[in-house]
Amino acid sequence: MPTTDPIAFTRQLRELRQTRRFTGQSVPEDVLADILDVARWTGSAKNTQPWHFIVVTDTSAIQILSEAGQFAGFLAGAPLVIVVAMAGKSPRSEPYDEGRLSERIMLAADAHGLGAGTGWFAPGAAGEERVKHALGIPDEMRVLQAVAIGYPDDADQRARTVIGGRKQIDEVVSRGRFGTGSR
Ligand SMILES: Cc1cc2nc3c(=O)[nH]c(=O)nc-3n(C[C@H](O)[C@H](O)[C@H](O)COP(=O)(O)O)c2cc1C
Questions:
Q1: Are the C-beta atoms of 99 and 92 separated by less than 8 Å?
Q2: Does the beta carbon of 122 sit less than 6 angstroms from any atom of ligand 1?
Q3: Distances (CA, A) of 141 to 65, 144, 176
Q4: Domains annotated on the chain, with CATH
Q5: Which residue numbers in the chain have pLDDT < 70?
Q6: With 151 labelled, which of 17, 109, 132, 159 sits at a CA distance of 20 to 30 A?
């Protein structure tokens, strides 16, 4: 249960955004420990917890990660990256589990005044395989993405390249029958 009032809490959820620019300040260890604890408590199908988190702070390793996806370049500016390795055993439920997990990492970072952003890796040798090799992740695991964490740079707001709006409520909600609108 949220300890803040519901409107403040849902505003925080609504305002959560992808952060792509960070200051050089490192993430305190106690904050990292809290974020990882939130991550490990994420629910998963049959409570399988099919994940392993590799915390990366070494700049040359982060550089490799930043080159492993078409839009992953921003990772290079982060002081810390959590690479999410999934078990690779359940192709239907694991992507769902991973989405929940990523979002919780971002929310936990946000609660500590940090910014976070997902970086997606390319398939095959240019992306996933390269990341696995660099970090010693077993072959059978799946590595789709990493979450960068750090203190957001003030310029981040202006640096967003993707239009940040959302579809209108009637475009995405129906009552009772598809396409009827939200009221
Ligand atoms: C599965 C997934 C993969 C993403 N991959 C990237 C990425 O590689 N690089 C990036 O800059 N943003 C990435 N994003 C962030 C989205 O672009 C972002 O959430 C979306 O544009 C909405 O922007 P906002 O969160 O700032 O409102 C990804 C998001 C998701 C859910």
A1: no
A2: no
A3: 17, 10, 40
A4: 18-153 (3.40.109.10)
A5: 1-2, 156-164
A6: 132
Task: Please indicate, yes or no, whether the overall pTM of this predicted structure exceeds 0.85.
Answer: yes
| Separation between Cα atoms, residue 47 and residue 174, nearest integer Å | 31
Asked if 52 and 98 count as a contact pair (C-beta separation under 8 A), the reply is no
Residues listed for the chain: 183
Count of other CB atoms within 10 angstroms of residue 182: 11
**pLDDT tens, residue by residue, 28-52:** 999 999 999 999 999 999 999 999 9
d(C-alpha 40, C-alpha 84), whole Å = 11
Of ligand 1's listed atoms, the one at least distance from the Cα of 69 is 8
Distance 94 CA to ligand 1 centre (A): 19
Q: What would the pLDDT profile of 124-141 be if each residue is shown by its tens digit?
A: 999 999 999 999 999 999
Shortest-distance atom of ligand 1 to CA 74: 11
Residue position matching structure tokens 């952060």: 19
Type of residue numbered 60: S
